[in-house]
Amino acid sequence: MVSTFLFLDLLFLSIFPVSSGQDRVEQSSEEMTASERDQVIVWCKYITTDTDPYLFWYQQLPNRSPTFILNKLTFGEGTTEPDFKKRFSATLNSTSKTVPLMIKDVRVSDSAVYYCALRPTVTGNTTTLYKNPVNK
């Protein structure tokens, strides 16, 4: 039997701007190789002063926009998109400040770039964050 290999590209991306410049996620930028039906773990470490961080995972297939997979909260369950519930999961560990993404029964179609993102900590007046520019 011939095994099929897949490549999971891991890149760093901070989806949301942060006000302090200190909150961030760290991911490896290396490719991973796995055989079909393996379990793969994609690591993400986060740095924040927030005591209740929200972490997000996204998948970006070639020539597509990123797709939301799941989010994890310090307190509570978070949510997972229905298409990913059976094989994708994550556990937020607030002690080690990690939120690894686990992919069970990996498939060739899982070859993608996986992004970890951290909800920003915003302080001060946030009204300008929501102001729309006016076309003149």
TrEMBL record:
Listed Pfam families: V-set
GO cellular component, one term: T cell receptor complex
Protein name (record): Ig-like domain-containing protein
Positions of the Ig-like domain: 17-127
Signal peptide: 1-21
PROSITE patterns associated with the record: IG_LIKE (PS50835)
Superkingdom of source: Eukaryota
